[in-house]
Amino acid sequence: MISQGDAALLITGHGSTVNPDSSAPSLAQAEAIRNRRIFREVVCSFWKEEPSLRDALLLFGDPEIREVYVVPNFISEGYFTQTVIPRELELEGSLTRRANGQLWKYCEPVGSHSAVTELLLARAAEIAPGVEEAETTLLIVGHGTALNDQSAVAAKRQVDKISALGRYASVQSAYMEEPPLIADWPRLTTTPNVVVVPFFISDGLHSYEDIPVLLGIEKEGAMAATRLRGVFRSNPHRLHGRALYYANAIGTAPQFADIILAQAENFERCTLDLGAPAQTVSS
Amino acid sequence: MRPPVERLLADWIASGTRGIGQIRITQSGGIFSLCHREDEGRSDLAVHRSPNDAIEIAKYTDAGEYRPLKTAPNLRRGWWLELPDVEALQRALDFFYPGRLAALAVWEANRLAPTPLRATLERQTGMYRVAAKIPDGGIDQLVGRFCRSQDGEPGCLRTIMWARDGTKARPSLRLPLDKYIAPVDQTGRGENVIPLLCQEACNLLVAEARKVVKSE
Fold it and tell me: How would you classify the pairing of strands B79-83 and B46-48?
């Protein structure tokens, strides 16, 4: 159990230099968690926005704060959770003891939590109300990249878990940049209904424009952000003789605040199990 | 007991500071009121009362462009923010100028250890690793235009605390010496304002350094 009063929470996100919606879920979840008054301090830091991950090293100067839980608001393990965040925060494993005695606890990313499966199912049901699941394909869309396969692995894991429930006619993952490509959805699916949920933390150009263009529900080209956001409100899209339902990014669900908290609590359980040693750095 | 940053803020207010960055701070009857320094005296400002409103106010320029760098001198005008106490004031300023009060608190405690630009660049991995190849002359030009307090591209109101490298050389000789001196009001108005300290080059500058290297 997280001790009250002497613990702080640091939510780390990617952020963006061009898209203000990138950091919005992290900021909203931080506010929701702050209002629960579990932590002495709740702050966000970002790779591409302010406060930066480097700034985060200065954010917990309150001597009352003895522990800092670092929860990556990322959809999967990968380059950012394994390389960038530990490097920028000068973490030396799951536990890092600072020179002032403060203990930083590096938690699993939110996307790794088992409750994400429930949220995917809830989001799919929400955007396609009353649609018969036995006549529906659920497509979970990840980024996919040749550089790091982890995000594709995370999407596939969700596919396996939801498939095992036997609710949908078919559950598949598809990607923007690697096969199976989301652009091939008419060929990948055979059901009259297709529900597409982007497996991303936040809405941005991928969910506003790139995926809608690949799906064929929007034309390529610059569009006003307000117009782009409207893409989520015009379900179903009638294409190729099917009803296509398109959701916004899964990470925008307010329940992700609970998942952030759960990942902090999971840290305690995991380290108790493993008896992980604390490490000391000189900063 | 108040957390250190709240104490710092209360001390600065008590010392008669007139604001921070482009923001005027006034206090009356225990209420803190914030507005753009260029808007002082206007009576037609849109009134806000939550520290969280600072998120939206700070998000776009007057021209509606997104502001990825909150210390760029392009804060929009036309707003008035009333806050009930120092805690709310700190929360709002942490949205307007994220991380800057924390950096100032560490600096005032004589514990700020700025990171030389070369160390920041050499730490990069992935697509930014190449940024470390920028020559000293390239740094001089880049910092000289990118971090300039006024008329920069985009410009930044922070005071640079970091050196170019281990020699402690200033990163750019194209910037006035004032750019490196903490108490100076970087808007050029010469007022007593809370300084916005830069302890390490931001990711935007790292990305620009990469562009410089890639273009050569």
Answer: parallel
